[in-house]
Amino acid sequence: MHFNGIAFNASGPRDTEPEELKALADSRACAITTKTATIKPRKGNPKPRYYDDGDNSVNSMGLPNPGYEEMARRIKALKHYSDKPVFASFSGSPREAAAITSAFDEAGADVLELNLSCPNLGKGKTEAESWLEGLGAVEEATKKSLAAKLPCFLNACEQELFCGVLEQSRVKYLVAVNSPGGGLMLNQKNEIALKPLHGGYGGKGIKALALGNVFRYHEYFGNKKKIIGVGGVFSGRDAFEHLLVGASLVEIGTAYQIHGTGIFTRVENELKTELEKHGFKSAGEAIGKAIQL
Ligand SMILES: Cc1cc2nc3c(=O)[nH]c(=O)nc-3n(C[C@H](O)[C@H](O)[C@H](O)COP(=O)(O)O)c2cc1C
User: Fold this and answer.
1) Architecture of domain 5-47+60-181+201-284 in this structure
2) Whole-angstrom Cα distance, residue 261 to residue 24?
3) Which of these is catalytic: 82, 102, 118, 235?
4) Contact of 268 with 240, CB cutoff 8 Å
5) Is 130 a catalytic residue?
6) What is the DSSP letter of 180?
7) Could you tell me the CA-to-CA distances from 151 to 62, 154, 230, 280 in Å, in that order?
8) Strand partners, 149
């Protein structure tokens, strides 16, 4: 699989409708992620369910999506239109995940991305058991590359426990991180910005947490897994920092929602300057080169 650059969109913002997917195909994004799909269509939570202040966002979208069958048709059309790698995101119980995987595989998706940061995988089990079961079901359903969209861990012990689970799987891409939950923002009218009150937090404020998670995965796995850094990427410098702590690609959520597809051009151009400034001949050379004191 060839990536013509290092930056592309994170699952969620502006990646559900056919015209949004086409805009991503026409942009500088080096791959395309599709909105997390579920077995049945979902309307999502009551609005307002997204808010940003230009730097940070909260969202409680509730996974609005047209369901996996319609999403598979959109992926198929996208693959006819563009040769960019497509990361097809989905979520569900192990049985649902297996059905969705097969459909997305058939539709031509290049990477099947299991959203493990969603709490509805296998009820009554520990999270680690649910992960194993979900990943196992997906592994059986396809021979294609797998990605896992990972939650934002706030401590090393918990993250290492889950590294053990990921080690047992053939997941190739670790997509870190999803929005940490429980965020709340107020708008200029002193209103709580979201109807559901709390939401996942994204944007500049989570970059440090994302870098912390990426760094630990890189320490644990070295080159055995590819890490895709997500969290607070607005500039080439942000992408460069993700590379330095171990990411080989970056995804952009909030900044893409706010700035549109121009963000991919900006990040790629600025990253080139940043790499030159610090004496790296390519993005690959910078991976994991953060200096430790
Ligand atoms: C409006 C919105 C919707 C999102 N929906 C999804 C989703 O469906 N699946 C998913 O894995 N992550 C979803 N996310 C999380 C993003 O993919 C990303 O992990 C997070 O926003 C952190 O990146 P950022 O700091 O660039 O925003 C969503 C984020 C936003 C802002």
Assistant:
1) Alpha-Beta Barrel (3.20)
2) 7
3) 118
4) no
5) no
6) P
7) 16, 9, 11, 31
8) 115, 175
Burial class (CB in 10 A: 0-12, 13-18, 19+), 130: buried
Write out residues with Cβ below 6 Å of ligand 1: 10-13, 35-36, 50, 57, 59, 61, 63, 89, 115, 149, 178-179, 202-203, 206, 230-233, 252-255, 257
Q: Residues 124-141: pLDDT tens digits? A: 677 888 888 999 999 999
Q: Which two tokens stand for residue 287?
A: 């991976």
- What's the CA dihedral at 17, 23, 28, 33 to 10 degrees? 10
Is 27 in the active site? no
pTM over 0.70, yes/no: yes
pLDDT digits (tens, 9 = 90+) for 147-162: 999 999 999 999 999 9
- Report which of 28, 132, 133, 18 is spatially closest to residue 70, judged by C-alpha positions: 18
In this structure, are strands 111-115 and 249-252 parallel, antiparallel, or unpaired?
unpaired
| Range list of H helices, the chain | 18-25, 68-81, 94-107, 127-141, 156-167, 207-221, 236-244, 254-259, 262-277, 283-286
Closest-CA residue, ligand 1 atom 23, reads: 231
